[in-house]
Design a protein that fits this description.
This protein is mainly alpha-helical. Helices cover 74% and strands 0% of the residues.
Length: 84
């Protein structure tokens, strides 16, 4: 409900900022598919493992969260230092 109401209420206060997408459709489709596959392989999403799983002391969630974070950091490093 908040995802729907927040922009509606924000629009009443001020104009919404433009949110340009700087990727082509094939990249967006592949990215979405990879997120779906990764969620299935990890038996849950990043926030589910990071918030709920860690709060209940799940070792599997700890391993998943560490993997997500390390992969994200490595990706940013590679793109910023080796990418275009």
């Amino acid at each position: 409900m908040g995802l729907i109401l927040a922009p509606v209420l924000a629009r009443l206060v001020d104009a919404l900022p433009a949110a340009p997408i700087q990727a082509d459709w094939p990249l967006l489709v592949v990215s979405g598919a990879l997120v779906g596959v990764g969620t299935g392989m990890a038996n849950g999403c990043t926030s589910g493992h990071g918030v709920c799983g860690l709060a209940r002391g799940s070792r599997r969630s700890l391993a998943a969260t560490l993997t997500f974070m390390a992969t994200g950091m490595l990706t940013v490093f590679l793109i910023r230092h080796l990418g275009s």
